[in-house]
Amino acid sequence: MKLDVTTLEGAKAGSVDLNEAIFGLDPRADLLARCVRWQLAKRQAGTHAVKNRSAIDRTTKKIYKQKGTGGARHGAASAPQFRGGGRAFGPVVRSHAHDLPKKVRALALKHALSSKAKDASLIVVDDVQLSEAKTKALVERFGKLGLANALIIGGAEIEANFQRAARNIPNIDVLPVQGINVYDILRREKLVLTKAAVDALEARFK
């Protein structure tokens, strides 16, 4: 698969051959959904909790005698049926993470990349570097490329001026190539890869 390479100014900078085994697959929604669910479950805090019966500080004295009242049999006032009592079957602090095989995660990433290539939402740039960290100048360059909602993947490290200029632009995410993931690819309309990122991805899946 051949794709034109552009610069941040919108000028042509040659072309690049993309590996069909990474960027030319027919996207599978089930794989993408499994990987996104795995990512979101893993980062879920799971800190929700309530006070159960043992955590309520109320009297444990029997509130009235067992027989002769005509009412139900009751003991401690911390029982769930009483106002101020403990919560029955409430949420507890736990991890929501579950396992997903590495091969499935790798395949899902390939399908996410392929989905952007298939939708013509993949842009390859030669490099992401700025002489000075000016957000206004970067917004103008993004306007030439038609980037209003995009994920930008650089090389092993993102150039400092570009990182500073881009971090205040809404709906623009910037990540090094080792941070690329299925969820961030799918949540943005465009995917921008540098030539270094393309080379790193092809080496990763070799």
TrEMBL record:
Q: Does the keyword tRNA processing apply?
A: no
Is Ribonucleoprotein a UniProt keyword of this protein? yes
Give the molecular function GO annotations.
rRNA binding; structural constituent of ribosome
- GO cellular component terms listed in the entry, alphabetical order: ribonucleoprotein complex; ribosome
Membrane-spanning ranges = none
Q: Which Pfam families match?
A: Ribosomal_L4
Any single biological process term in GO: translation
Keyword annotations: Ribonucleoprotein, Ribosomal protein, RNA-binding, rRNA-binding
Which residues constitute the signal peptide according to the record? none
Q: What does the protein in this record do?
A: Forms part of the polypeptide exit tunnel.
Spell out the subunit comment. Part of the 50S ribosomal subunit.
Instruction: Give the similarity note.
Output: Belongs to the universal ribosomal protein uL4 family.
Q: What is this protein called?
A: Large ribosomal subunit protein uL4
Which gene underlies this protein? rplD
